[in-house]
Amino acid sequence: MKTDPIQTEPATAALDRANMWRGVLLMSVAFLLYSLSDLVAKLLTADFHAVQIGWTRQLGLLSGVIFLLIQRGFIVFHTKRPGLQIARGVIASTSPVLFTMAVAQISLADAVAVSFVAPFLVVIFGALMLNEHISRKQFFGILGAFIGTLIIVRPGLGVFQFGTVFVLLAATAFALRQVISRMVAGVDRTSTTVAYAGTVSVLVLSFILPFYWKTPETLYQYGLFFLVALTAGFGEFFIIRALDITFAVILAPLQYTMIIWSIIWGWMFFADLPDSWTLIGTAIIIISGILTSGVMRYLKPNELKTKLKRHTR
């Protein structure tokens, strides 16, 4: 029996809209979990080195790789660009360590705010490494992010903290990972890229872990290590699920919700509140990011409807 296309099209569009909102919810939960992982990592820095904490966080991501192995088998490690995948995994091992070193010295809100420059670094590296064109809108977005970062960091005004350097290095590593992801996107599956990142990063950190290892002494410390891995692992899982059902351009601005959680956790656990200049700089970076992300096109009802229709075909 044939199905009437006039009847099925509204149903399909409604299903895609539902998927879009499910993706938004999943991504929002993912960034909440990432913010909790950052909080627990900062708590652990009082007694443990960033390498040990970063290694534990990556174990959470490795659990996702194990899930992929159970689901799909060793085919997830089949790659046409092994060099790039391994290089990406090595770079992935540095980001959590550098960011943990940062939050050991500066507030969560300050660290997260500065890390928002990463998408703009992706644009710059994309131009340098992939010969991608930087549009006028992207140029002004980069300029806005640079100004916002200067307002937050305020070098030369006596408020600069060295921990900010670690955040910028972590953001640079993240941006390089994203550019490499684009280089392998056309030849390897996303699951393969995730599998290599989780596996290689844990192996790299495992080589240097003995030099920094300190055995937890209390159930509280063991619990914190378990939480840092659990929240990172589930955060990664929810992001993968969200990207499976919703356009990345719609989900990308949700990363900025992390600043809200970071301010809340900083106030609740460390009595830290960002000053007015940090909030202004953060706002400039967020506005620049949203305006250059392309999400504004999707907020127009007709455009969203068109995209959803194309997505179903």
Description:
The structure is a single chain. With 313 residues, this protein is mainly alpha-helical. It is built from 14 helices and no strands.
Keyphrases for this structure?
disordered N terminus, mainly alpha
Q: How are the elements arranged and paired?
A:
Blueprint: H1 5-44, H2 50-72, H3 82-103, H4 108-115, H5 118-130, H6 136-153, H7 163-185, H8 190-208, H9 219-245, H10 248-251, H11 257-270, H12 276-293, H13 295-298, H14 301-312
Helix pairs in contact: 1-9, 1-11, 1-14, 2-3, 2-8, 2-9, 3-7, 3-8, 4-7, 4-11, 5-6, 5-7, 6-12
The Rg value, from CA coordinates, equals 20 Å
Query: Into which percentage range does the β-strand content fall?
Result: under 5%
Overall average residue pLDDT: 82
- Number of spatially distinct domains: 1
Stretches with pLDDT under 50, minimum 5 residues? 1-8
Based on Cα principal axes, name the global outline. globular
Helix content: over 70%
Number of helices: 14
**Helix-strand topology string:** HHHHHHHHHHHHHH
Main sheet attributes: strand count, strand direction, barrel closure: none
> Which structural class best describes the helix and strand composition?
mainly alpha
Spatial separation of the terminal alpha carbons = 21 Å
The count of strands amounts to: 0
